[in-house]
Backbone:
């Protein structure tokens, strides 16, 4: 098996980035800002000595984003983790689903939920 050249690896990364960018527009017209979201996750996990190894899913609704990212580090196993963000004054802010989902009692979206209705089920009922 031949080693992969740096040029081929760079092209593969560019194609992967383009495919994610294609998901950045949602039917509601929100701009996902995939690069900004990845930067925020990289900053968050960087504090623990890890880095983002890939974005597996990016779903945006209004000014909210659910990102599933694969993260890992030199001495740490890789894992796919969900990250919930809300855009506030142009800045992506990490949100805790426990509070953003509202007071869930019967599996339906409560009145105090912050997460938009179109994203609520993905964020708040998956377990």
Residues:
């Amino acid at each position: 098996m031949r080693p992969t050249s740096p040029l081929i690896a760079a092209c593969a990364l560019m194609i992967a980035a383009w495919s994610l960018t294609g998901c950045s527009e949602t039917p509601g017209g929100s701009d996902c800002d995939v690069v900004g979201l990845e930067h925020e996750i990289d900053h968050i996990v960087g504090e623990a000595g890890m880095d983002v190894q890939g974005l597996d899913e990016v779903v945006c609704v209004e000014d909210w984003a659910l990102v599933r990212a694969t993260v890992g580090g030199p001495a740490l196993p890789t894992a796919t983790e969900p990250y919930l963000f809300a855009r506030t004054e142009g800045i992506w802010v990490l949100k805790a689903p426990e509070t953003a989902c509202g007071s869930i009692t019967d599996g339906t979206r409560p009145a105090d939920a912050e997460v938009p209705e179109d994203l609520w089920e993905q964020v708040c009922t998956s377990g």
